[in-house]
């Protein structure tokens, strides 16, 4: 039996342990990837703590995967051994449910997510559906590509589907793993970019990332500060804090959009009265398909957008995960093999 090194979490909330795991050969429509890099995402915390239905244990986390195809299953077309590929939150679709037949693959009724529906990327190798594969441009390293499969595509894809036009003002709430990419993409898309975060410690970074303005939410009424700048067409809410999201609504221009991508179960404290007269919209945005990931990476190459990362070897996965949990890395940890 072939084995490889992988991280296992054996029980809900258990420690991350490096073990010898069975290597799964690809079935029909699948490929096996030699993992070169895997991002550590805040959502990994939910997986480790059993936050999704129908999970199985032991669990291998990781849904920001980049590597090289090492083995093809039957029926795979368009990809070859040696291809550089990424797999993100979108871990495959069925192609036969109603949403798939309508062409909205991100809402596949049988969609898969790495680490939830099959072992994830904190490992030397993963076996994935070919429908999950995004080609990595030659200009990106594996470590640069990995975060684009979740943090990158989520922010880029959300912004490009708003009604904002170049020159419009767009605010990014939160300057963290998602927000630091959101700020860069905003600037690259030609928006007047406003970063909103707690305190002053991220002000300098926000400006290095491309923000034209910085609002400290601990010292300012955020809506009032946004209005003082002329109001915004869009708020990209990357911080998982419902009250902080709601606090931006008063700064939206008529027909403005609050796009929520920061995950929290707390209800949004927003009233219909706040939305009706200015005709505001509040939208939830999922990440993006494999093709969206490819387009995110292509735009990153064109624009120079990159995640700010700290690389750690796979053997230090537990330390990297702990650093993410404690907020020690400011932006993105990436495991390398």
Automatic annotation (TrEMBL):
Catalytic reaction annotation: a secondary alcohol + NAD(+) = a ketone + NADH + H(+); a primary alcohol + NAD(+) = an aldehyde + NADH + H(+)
Domain of life: Bacteria
One Pfam family, short name: ADH_N
SUPFAM superfamilies xrefs: GroES-like (SSF50129), NAD(P)-binding Rossmann-fold domains (SSF51735)
InterPro entries recorded: ADH-like_C (IPR013149), ADH-like_N (IPR013154), ADH_Zn_CS (IPR002328), ER (IPR020843), GroES-like_sf (IPR011032), NAD(P)-bd_dom_sf (IPR036291)
A GO term from the CC aspect: cytoplasm
Coiled-coil segments: none
Record key words, sorted: Metal-binding, NAD, Oxidoreductase, Zinc
Family matches, as Gene3D superfamilies: Medium-chain alcohol dehydrogenases, catalytic domain, NAD(P)-binding Rossmann-like Domain
GO molecular-function term, one example from the UniProt record: zinc ion binding
Enzyme class: oxidoreductase
Domain Enoyl reductase (ER): 13-335
PANTHER family in the record: ALCOHOL DEHYDROGENASE 1-RELATED, ALCOHOL DEHYDROGENASE-LIKE N-TERMINAL DOMAIN-CONTAINING PROTEIN
UniProt-recorded name of the protein: Alcohol dehydrogenase
Organism ancestry: Bacteria, Bacillati, Actinomycetota, Actinomycetes, Mycobacteriales
């Amino acid at each position: 039996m072939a084995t490889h090194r992988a991280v296992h979490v054996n029980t809900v909330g258990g420690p991350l342990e490096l073990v010898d795991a069975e290597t799964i050969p690809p079935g029909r429509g699948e490929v096996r990837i030699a993992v070169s890099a895997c991002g550590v995402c805040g959502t990994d915390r939910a997986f480790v703590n059993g936050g999704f239905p129908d999970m199985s244990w032991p669990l291998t986390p990781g849904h920001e995967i980049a590597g090289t195809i090492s083995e093809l299953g039957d029926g795979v077309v368009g990809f070859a051994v040696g291809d550089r590929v990424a797999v993100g939150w979108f871990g495959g679709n069925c192609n036969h449910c109603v949403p798939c037949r309508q062409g909205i693959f991100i809402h596949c009724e049988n969609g898969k997510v790495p680490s939830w529906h099959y072992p994830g990327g904190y490992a030397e190798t993963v076996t994935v559906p070919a429908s999950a594969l995004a080609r990595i441009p030659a200009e990106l390293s594996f470590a640069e590509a990995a975060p684009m499969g979740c943090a990158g595509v989520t922010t880029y894809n959300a912004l490009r589907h708003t009604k904002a036009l170049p020159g419009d003002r767009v605010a990014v709430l939160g300057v963290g793993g998602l927000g630091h990419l959101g700020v860069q993409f905003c600037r690259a898309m030609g928006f007047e970019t406003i970063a909103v975060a707690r305190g002053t410690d991220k002000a300098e970074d926000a400006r290095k990332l491309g923000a034209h303005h910085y609002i400290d939410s601990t010292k300012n009424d955020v809506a009032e500060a946004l209005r003082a700048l002329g109001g915004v067409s869009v708020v990209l809410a990357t911080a998982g804090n419902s009250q902080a999201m709601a606090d931006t609504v008063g700064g939206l221009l008529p027909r403005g959009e609050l796009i929520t991508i920061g995950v929290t179960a707390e209800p949004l404290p927003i009233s219909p009265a706040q939305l009706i007269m200015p005709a505001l919209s509040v939208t939830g945005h999922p990440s993006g398909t494999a093709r969206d990931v490819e387009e995110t990476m292509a735009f990153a190459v064109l624009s120079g957008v990159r995640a700010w990362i700290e690389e750690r070897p796979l053997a230090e996965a537990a330390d990297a995960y702990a650093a993410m949990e404690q907020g020690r890395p400011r932006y993105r940890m990436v495991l390398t093999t």
